[in-house]
Amino acid sequence: MTESFVTEPGPADLHAWHVLRPLLDWRPYLPFSSGSMRVSGLVHLCNTIVHSEPAEVVECGAGVSTIVLARLLAERGTGRITALEHDARWAEVVGRQIAAESLARVSRVIHAPLDDGWYDDDGVAGLPDAIDLLIVDGPPADSAELALARRPALDRLASRLGPGAVVVLDDIGRAGEQAVLAQWEETTDWSFERMPEEAIAVGRRPR
Ligand SMILES: C[S@@+](CC[C@H](N)C(=O)[O-])C[C@H]1O[C@@H](n2cnc3c(N)ncnc32)[C@H](O)[C@@H]1O
């Protein structure tokens, strides 16, 4: 049975737009879309970066989240983000934005086509060996056939997740992501805090 979660943006998102203003005002336009991470979830990630200072952030599924987090990392002068992106055209769009904003020092996009439903080995090989913060917002999982598309992330990247690593899964309002979380918790020692308003779950391993 799936849990009932908030799926539409709410007051937390209105607040989040204000909180994010320093990272959005007077900077180049970002093409937010319905595929973009909810802004309240993005604020949670920004706060995690400020509080935990992850050296290596990896994001499955590039987008405006990659750029916003890169802006924050550049501003703070510590840490970098690497995004895996299956779609060549979108990887190029995000890569161009990174270049236009001179964010290449702290961010990059790896184009990794899907192979049997997940990012190909060549793309994964380009990721940092030790990941401190993993954001799972891809591959696309917005149809019944693709509902479990994000499940491989924890297993495929397990060897790169250190003892203090944090894993964030987006879109937990959907039945597919709830099933992914349940399977991760059943089959690994990770446990996840569900944050319905932000539509994310934040996972840690017992130390
Ligand atoms: C859930 S989205 C990832 C969104 C990204 N993490 C963000 O919050 O901006 C999954 C996929 O949708 C595609 N996508 C995301 N944003 C898009 C946009 N604004 N326009 C076109 N495609 C987009 C990309 O292929 C991406 O990997």
Major β-sheet strand ordering? 3-2-1-6-7-9-8
Number of strands: 9
User: Could you please say which CATH topology applies here?
Assistant: Rossmann fold
Bound molecules: S-adenosylmethionine
Structural key phrases:
37% helix; alpha/beta; globular; binds S-adenosylmethionine; two-stranded antiparallel ribbon; 7-stranded mixed β-sheet; 8 helices; Rossmann fold; 207 residues
Describe the structure.
This is Methyltransferase domain-containing protein. It comes from uncultured Solirubrobacteraceae bacterium. InterPro entries: SAM-dependent_MTases_sf (IPR029063). The chain has eight helices and nine strands. By secondary structure, it is α/β, with parallel strands linked by helices. It has a single domain, classed as Vaccinia Virus protein VP39 (Rossmann fold, 3-Layer(aba) Sandwich). The strands form two sheets. A seven-stranded mixed sheet has the order 3-2-1-6-7-9-8, sandwiched between helices. Strands 4-5 form a two-stranded antiparallel ribbon. The chain binds S-adenosylmethionine. S-adenosylmethionine is lined by residues 31, 33, 35-37, 59, 61-65, 85, 87, 90, 137-138, 140.
